[in-house]
Each structure stands twice: as structure tokens, then as C-alpha cells.
Amino acid sequence: MQIYLLRHAIAVPRGSISFPNDDRPLTEEGIKKMAKAAKGAALILPPIDIILASPLKRAYETAVIMAKAIGAEHRLEICKYLLPNSSMKNVMTYLAKYKDLQSLLIVGHGPDIGFIASALLGNSGDIIEFKKGALCCIETETIPSRKHGRLLWHLPPRFLRDIG
Prior knowledge:
Blueprint: E1 2-7, H1 28-44, E2 50-53, H2 57-70, E3 76-78, H3 88-95, E4 103-108, H4 112-120, E5 135-139, E6 150-155, H5 157-163
């Protein structure tokens, strides 16, 4: 199984008076950059079986942009376990229901998306840094994995935009 992890794009800054933290949307710059990065991602991603996104606006908007670019709008689902500070045990238990799929795209928040990547690689820390809009691919036998997953690639958003 290949698991793709994507951190949401540039959002309205935390502490903005106009938007509570949970309601922060992507900025216009974030939307433009993510649309271009999603075009690049569409060139390298295989067909995605399911896209799981955090219910927070910035992650969901990022997931919608990516889903449109890769032709997977009907495969987008909200996952409450991808909310910031969710228990990693709950995340992995939820992901296990998709263990028979070939590919899964997870759209979430930093630093949590890094914690998910680390857990899939067999580490309890945050060993992979995700810039906003960064995408990585981890290969694992199944979820939960009896062996550690393998990091196949980790791409910064600039690279995705350049190829897009």
C-alpha cells in the first residue's frame, strides 16, 4: 500500500481576528500555489483509492484542490481523526479500515502530518518536516504495519509547482 501525506496549503494566519483558528481558510496565495502544486502532483501520483481530509477548512480546501487535479472528487472523505492533536492510536485504528486499498491520500495539519508519517515509518517522534503543501509517499505492507514503512519520496511544494 502506498500512503501519500499532504500538509494543507497556506492559510490565514493563526490569531487573525476575522477567523477563529478552526475556521481559517486558505489564502488566495495558498489557493494559487496549491492549484499549481496539485497539477504537478497529478503528473506523479497513481490513481488514488481514497482521500481523507481533516474537517478543518484549510485542510478540506486543500484536499478539494488536490482531488479536482487528480480526478478524485468523488473519493474525498472527511476524517475527524485528522484534527490537530488527535491520538495517534485513533488515527492508526481509523486508517486500518482502509488496509486493503492500494493507495491512500491523507490531507492534514503540521505537525500532526509529520507524526503520522513518523508512525508509519516506525518512529514515535516527528522525523519528517512538512512545509505547507509538501507531499510524501510511504510504502507499507498494511495498516497497522507489522514492519516499518519505507519512505519512497518527500517533495517540497516548490518542486510540485515547478513540474506543474
